[in-house]
Amino acid sequence: MHASHVNVWGKTHWGLAWSVDETASVRRISHGGGTVGQISLLTLVPEHGLAIAVLSNADRGSVLTRDVTERALKEYLNVEIKRPTAIESTPDKLATFAGRFGRPFADLELGMLGQRLIGQVTVKQSFPTPDSPLPPPTPPFSVGRCEEDRLLVLDGPYTDTTADVIRDAAGSIGWIRFTGRIHAALP
Predict the structure, then answer these.
(1) Domains of the chain from N-terminus onward
(2) Is 135 in contact with 59 (CB distance < 8 Å)?
(3) Are 54 and 40 within 8 A, CB to CB?
(4) pTM reported for the whole predicted model
(5) What is the pLDDT of residues 54-70, one digit of tens each?
């Protein structure tokens, strides 16, 4: 279940429902989940017999679960996870990432506001029942680049979250992987 089935980025890949990250000095196997009002993350470090389970009562608790997991890795194993940093980008370069990207439950919209690339997520299906009210769109957040085809959220509820740009055979942006989910380019 932890064997590589799909490369995500660099030394990170997906097994069968598990994310396997080998970017630091230890191999970390994790799976997150969530529902209305709760987000969780289970991280295993088999070589050290360590398991970290973080549960939150927040719709956008992914930043919290990541931060607590990273702190536990530092405290118990002296492993420091290096977060990506923004690289310099011109407004023209950032504008090449503008567009709408969707998946069944939500859309990600990236657009220029002045000199900045701005993102916003809109949920489009009710949960947990079909008649549950839709939440409002997320607050807009600034987006930069941290690698050639990798975006980085600079502020707001998704701060430090990366988005992987996946190009089609013609070189156009076909998909963006954001929060672990594939969003296809929309017309």
Answers:
(1) 6-77 (no CATH), 91-185 (2.40.128.50)
(2) yes
(3) yes
(4) 0.84
(5) 999 987 688 889 999 99
